[in-house]
Amino acid sequence: MQPGVTPPADSVEGGLWMVMEKAELRLKTSGRVIPDAELQAYVHDIACRLAGEHCANLRTYVVRQPGFNAAMAPNGFMTVWSGLILRCENEAQLAAVIGHEIAHFLRRHSLQRWETMRDSLGAAQVFGLVSAAAGVPLGDIALLGAVGYIQAYSRDQEREADELGLETMTAAGYDPQAAPQLWRNLIAEGEAADKDEPNPFFSSHPPTKERMEMLSDLAAAARTTDTAKQDRFHELVSRYRAVWLEDEVDVGRYAEIQVILSRIKEDGHMPGVVWYYQGEALRRHAEVEDKTEAIAALRKALEFDDAPAVTYRSLGLLLAKQGDAAGARRAYQSYLEKAADADDREMIRYYIKELEKRS
Amino acid sequence: MTRALNLIGCFLVVALLAGCTTFVAVSPAKKHEIGNVFRVQPSTLWSAKKDGNVENWTINGFDLEIVSFITKVTEGKAIAPKLQGDDAPTFQADMNATDVVNLYEAVLTARKFSQVEVRNLRPHTISGKDGFRFEYSGFDANGLAKRGMVVGLIDSENGLNLVIYEAAAEHYYDASREAAENVFDSLEKI
């Protein structure tokens, strides 16, 4: 059967489609899909260029969710997490992941995983796991840890998806070197982690050394044209970078965030925002007792025009704790001047009064 | 055989009653003490369930609307340690309202909330003591839109104390808001 052809309802694959359709409907009505038609169309367009004649069978959803994950369901819907786009340095890296997932879809690799799930789990568990395996960030996300066990692709399937993914991205005009580079970045992030947390994407796509070498060899052998226009990537990501970084900081994976921020800093995009989040991650990280580096990062952010006004607020909070009442007051005052519409102005004025009482 | 069935029946009744006894009615006719920190008199009948330093009230069911009193979160303790695990950010005595907002955002993250927006952090007074108040919105783990409001009080004796009203954004938040506001308005520090 070709992808996109609806399987008979009483077949094994038909059962999988039914569950996936429920998961897709749940995702669509959940409020997690980013309500930006331009961003959604942009990602869908990349998927279509990679999928070629199968474009009509694809539906893509960019969901607001920190962490690196993308997955494609056998009925043709793909979820791409905002945390994945945040971690991509360019459109070619995003295309590498999308192309790889489309390859799994075209080769119908998930059917085998479905049979494993169906045989070993109850209906409720199956729905949760299938949803999680399709990258739907709803329900018991603890299930994501179990997804790796259930959905791990075989080595042959991974190789096949890597080969086909690289082939399609190269044919679409992307530099295939983007694929191994993205994996190297992800490995560096994983190595920096404070704790070993299950990553749904790594669970199903283990980043082994052997695989990295194979990807590099395949990329080196590919005839690249590198002609794909990628200007819109930075334009669209700039729109959301601050929000997505805030999501990552809220999750509390501070060590990994530093790796991401270092990479974005090298690219030179939005330096004020990037330095602010570097300082903010250090400020919020309870295990970092000495906040000198956090203060330095926030001060560095303020050297750039794009530093958000909240940089002053964070600086004020840290200086107040360090006993620098005058410095804290100045920072709070600057925040009030820069953030005319901030809804916590009354609270900041209260902090200033308290500092004045103490001095 | 009949005796055995009777015994099983008794066990079932006892088990059911045991389950029921954890809920108590909160009458609007009198003041109630919460965690030896707050005294509160609601304007309507709530059902309450207590678990350690957390007391939860509801009118229509916890998934629809809930008022949570979290008291005596002391130095080095997380707001919701059972939910957040060992690596949770913890309350520190030198924290202020903005820090507590960050702590609360971490709780929402642990609850798998997404698209959390915190608004209107401002000073709030309870029995003449300086506290703070803020509102928030987001989508819960099931993708349901939720709204909430929080009143907080930090004191040197009891640490951090929070009173939280959270409800489904559609219908229930507005429907039970007046009852929740009355709870907030009646708060007294013991």
Which structural category fits the helices and strands of chain A? mainly alpha
Largest interface: A-B, 31 and 30 residues
Number of strands of chain B: 11
> Strands of the largest sheet of chain A, in order across it?
1-3-2
When the domains of chain A are counted, the total is 2
What letter string, H or E per element, gives the SSE order of chain B?
HEEEEEEHHEEEEHE
Order of helices and strands of chain A: HHEEEHHHHHHHHHHHHHHHH
Largest sheet strand order of chain B: 1-4-5-6-10-9-8-7
The whole-number mean of residue pLDDT values of chain A reads 85
Based on CA atoms alone, the radius of gyration of chain A comes out at: 23 Å
The largest β sheet of chain A comes out as: 3 strands, mixed
| Percent in helix of chain A | 55-70%
What is the CATH T-level topology of chain B? Protein Transport Mog1p, Chain A
Q: What is the terminal separation of chain B in angstroms?
A: 56 Å
